[in-house]
Amino acid sequence: MPSAFYVLPVNIRPLFPLAEVYIVNWLLKDIGEQVTEEIVTVSCSDEKLQLEKKENGFLISGTLKDVPYARFAQKLLVLTGEIAILLDLKKAEMKHGQNLAGEARDEVYFCNVFVENGQLISVQKKQTEKKLRYLGALTRTVMMAGALERILELAVNYAKGREQFARPLHRFQVVQQQLALLAGEVAAAGIAAEYAATSYGGNPFSKEIALAKVRVNEAAGKASAIAHQVLAAIGFTHEHTLHHSTRRLRAWRDEYGTETDWGLGNSTDRIIITNEELRIVVTGDGCRKSFRKGGIIDERFTFFGRKQYCKNSAESPGKFECVQ
């Protein structure tokens, strides 16, 4: 399953909700429903629909904002309490909108739309909403990693081709420094996204997904600023392709949780890292403190998908090695 995420970071502007199609079908599969071949999207807004009980079903009314590509989708998956519903968008009224990147984010309005009892899907509210949040964060993370790679490519090519003071921009040390910082952010984001996608198969609520969204969000802010500095004024023009990636990064950064939402907010899904996990990632030192009294292999840790264990050094008894 994680390999499916790697089709997302593409340098195109799709006119249908590719990521949302994945999300909806994974959710349908997890709750035991048949996946669909239709173009579907999902609402991640806090607004809820009102259900009025009738003899053979329900009347549904309400407004959902910022629905991705609703104008191009056939159906919309909505979570309302302990119920999931696939609603036909032909029965909805729609007000077209867009996000900062110009992608379709529409307002969908349902007025007394009748849904039969057989169309209602019973779900566990908290678990399904949490899975939607993590799936959304994961897809946005991978998409952002792809956009960051595109930004690096554009910046490097521009620095090689643009000359100033009779030499290419990339020959200036200050530009080299900025490109190096940009490459570092892109590499870190790519690794975080890869580990997040890999971890999903074993645990859909893994800490790697939350950490990856935070890390890629941070990289998006830094990388966008550096890329526009390198390209200067031309990077801000509508005709140049750089803004197609940087504006998407700004828009996707806010979807399915910001850094504050995942790390410091009041969300029940905020990241909790143990002292030992923090020490491992800061020092890269495995678990030396826990292994003072020996033992070939005593404990194993996983952080960002990286498994580590410590063992006694054969050459120097009492000295511990970290092995991945």
Automatic annotation (TrEMBL):
A single GO BP: fatty acid beta-oxidation using acyl-CoA dehydrogenase
Entry keyword Oxidoreductase: yes
Domain named Acyl-CoA dehydrogenase/oxidase C-terminal: residues: 138-254
A molecular function (GO) term: acyl-CoA dehydrogenase activity
Cellular component GO terms, alphabetical: cytoplasm
Superkingdom per UniProt: Bacteria
Protein name in UniProt: Acyl-CoA dehydrogenase
